[in-house]
Every structure is written in C-alpha cells, then in structure tokens.
C-alpha cells in the first residue's frame, strides 16, 4: 500500500524513502515498534503526507504552510508529533515548523517528552541559537527534566559552547530549577560517557561556587579521564578529591588501577593496591581482588597472584569463577599444567569463565587437542560453549590467519574462503587466496567471528554438518567436533531467536 503511494507522488525526495524504510521495518521486523504503533495508532499514510508537506514547504511562509497542513487530513496527537520528530532526526526546520503549527491548536498540549524529542533533533542539527531558545521556553513552561539537562549538556559541550553549559545551570535556576548536585552529577556522567571529559571538568569547576562537587562528581571525572587514557588529569582529579576530604570510592580506585594496568604501568597499579591494603583493607572486596589477580595472571605473574589469592582466602572472601578462571590461565601460562587442573577439579560447579581460562591457557601452550577435550568436557557438564569459545578453538587449530591443509577438501581455503565466496564477499576471499599463494602479502586476519555469524542459519546447519563429515573422514576429529557442535547449537539457537522476532 505504501509502496503504491510513492509511485503516485511526484519526484519522491530522499527523506520519503527513509520514511518508507522506517515504516517497513516497523511493520515487519521490530516487534516492539510494531506493537507500540498499534497501541497508539498513527496512520502511516497521514504521517507520510504531513512529513511530505513539511519537507517540501519547510521554507514556505507560515500562512501557506499552515493552510496546507490544515487541509491535509490527520489527527494531531502527542504520538503523531513524536513520530514527525523521528522522521527528521537531523533536520530542525521541518520539526520546528511543525511545532509552531501545533501551537495554533488550542487543544494540543506539549509535554517534557515531546519537548525533549524536539530539543534532541534541534541539537543534532546543531542550530544552537534555536536550541537555546527552546531550552528557555521549556524552562518557562517548567517542562525541564533530567533528560533535558543531559541533552542540553551533550549538545552544547559537543558544539564547544562551554560557557553555555555553565549558563544553563544559572538560567534554569532562574526558572525555579535550583542548583542541584544530582543534576550536575548526571550531567557530568553524560558528558564523560560521550568522551567529553574536559568539558565536564570545565563545567564542574565553573559551577563550584554554586554546586559543591562530591565524591561522585570526582569519581565520574576520574573515570572519564581514565577512559580517554589521560592518566595525568585522572591523577589530578584524584588528588583534588582527596584534598577536599573525599575518600576515593572503590569504583574510582579500581578504575584507576585498571587503567594503570592497561597502560602497562604495572608497578604503579600495584602501588595503589598496596596503599589500599595498607590504609583501607576493610574496603577491599572481591571485585578489587578479582581485578588484581586477573592482571597479574595476564602479565604472567602467577606467583604474585597466588599471594593475593591466599590473602583473599584468609580474609574469607570467596573467589568467584572469573577469579579462578584467571588463576587457571595464569598457571597454564607458566606451564604449571597439573596445578591448573587441580584448581579446576577443586571447583564444584565451574562456569564458562573457568573453562575459557583452561582452553585459552592450553591453546597458548599449543595443546589444541587437549583444549578441544576441555570443550567436550564442558558440554558434558552442561556448560554450553559460546561464540568466543569457538573462535578461540578455531584459532588454536587453524591459526589466526588460517591454515592450508594437504587435503583440498578440508583445507582452510575450501572451508573459509569458499564460505566467503558464497557469502558474496569476493574481494575478501580474493585477498585470502592471494595470501596463501604468495606468503608475505599483507592481508587482514581472517575474521572467524564474521564467518561464524554469517553461517548461523539454516545453510550453516547443512554446511557445518558436511564440513564435519569431511574432516572426520580425514581424521581431523577435533575440528569436526567443533564445527558440528557449532552447526547444531549456534545455528539452531539463532534460528529460534529469529523465529521469536518474527512472531
Ligand atoms: C561458578 O558458577 C556456577 C554456575 O553459575 C555456580 O553454580 C558456582 O557456584 C560458581 N562457583 C563459584 C566458586 O563462584
């Protein structure tokens, strides 16, 4: 029905196509959206007509635009307004002009939701003057909420309008939204989450006389600077926080430690850990121990990890599966195989992280066959492998860049490159073929993840079954088991998921 309509429209514009795309996904594949629109019915044909008018006449004089809109048959509802906003996610003009039109209807009432929606569109199209005007209008109508603050700060900071970020708090105070630490912290969190941590810091410091930052504010800033890899600023925030009498929250401590570990500043990370042990032993819990043990094992320092583990044990903190998994990997990485198995045997009900530690460690020791035995064992014990398990094992057997076998039926090219061709990825396939022909040619690593995802379907069930059989025939039982299990489980799981979406 919708398709037929576009044909009758003269010169369909780009946005109309986008709109159609939106409709068709609404109706077929997104169950939530579909049920949403059926519970508050917006007639798609009416929406399309109104959006067409708004798009085509967005520069027309107001009386003309309004009379066109009035002449077009549609029911103006709150939901209708939201959907108009959705149709123009990056264009302020049609949305704002529609807003002006709604103002001429005495029965129509805007809410914080509709204003925020429009505010977001105007922000995304970077019309800062209008944005600021609308924000003030929202203030006057007392329709500002936390979400408005978040949209405002993200937009203004993103547009480098830092003084306006500060002004926002003063302006809102004028409308009766008093200075609040809660709003500031939510704003800081939003900015840091959008990698706008310098902007967040500016805001906090400029508002200091009105809103005194607390431990949460500093924690957000510390985490924000850690996330962008700026350890110097993170440390400055840390010291400032301590100077102001706030004890660093454990989250902040862990973030700092983790960043130090990640940036290969192992000794400094440990110094921080030691300081915590010395001064705040009572605050050290499982999460910090888990973090430290994980990194020690990652960096092949399993003896150190054991010391920490023992302390944890003495303090009656129960290790979890993740910590034990790290330890198992750490032991294997140092070749302490039997100890690693002993740890696993001591766990009553190991979960996937323990098995992964075992598999990863064994693969590092180039014991792919033994790792596959662990894979079988985990299945026997009711622990279903996930995508990551398969990728690790395939890389362990075939190498990160694939392997050329002696039997053309079962070698890497047939299975994977053949698969790529089938998937229509000719260019990628050609690159891998070239690599196997002329070694040394730079091609990307084979993407097992993409490959497996592509075959998580009916075709995959058949393909992996076939491949499994061939591999078994030539004695590659490990690979055969891995592929067949993948075909049976992942593909059917995906199929079930798809069916659930379709219904
Ligand atoms: C490991 O995970 C399993 C499964 O979730 C759970 O039953 C078991 O208690 C966990 N073990 C530890 C040591 O946390």
UniProtKB/TrEMBL annotation:
<comment type="similarity">
    <text>Belongs to the PPR family. P subfamily.</text>
</comment>
<protein>
    <submittedName>
        <fullName>Pentatricopeptide repeat</fullName>
    </submittedName>
</protein>
<dbReference type="InterPro" id="IPR002885">
    <property type="entry name" value="PPR_rpt"/>
</dbReference>
<dbReference type="InterPro" id="IPR050667">
    <property type="entry name" value="PPR-containing_protein"/>
</dbReference>
<dbReference type="Pfam" id="PF01535">
    <property type="entry name" value="PPR"/>
</dbReference>
<dbReference type="Pfam" id="PF12854">
    <property type="entry name" value="PPR_1"/>
</dbReference>
<keyword id="KW-0732">Signal</keyword>
<feature type="repeat" description="PPR">
    <location>
        <begin position="351"/>
        <end position="385"/>
    </location>
</feature>
<feature type="repeat" description="PPR">
    <location>
        <begin position="285"/>
        <end position="319"/>
    </location>
</feature>
<feature type="signal peptide">
    <location>
        <begin position="1"/>
        <end position="28"/>
    </location>
</feature>
<dbReference type="InterPro" id="IPR011990">
    <property type="entry name" value="TPR-like_helical_dom_sf"/>
</dbReference>
<dbReference type="Pfam" id="PF13041">
    <property type="entry name" value="PPR_2"/>
</dbReference>
<keyword id="KW-0677">Repeat</keyword>
<feature type="repeat" description="PPR">
    <location>
        <begin position="214"/>
        <end position="248"/>
    </location>
</feature>
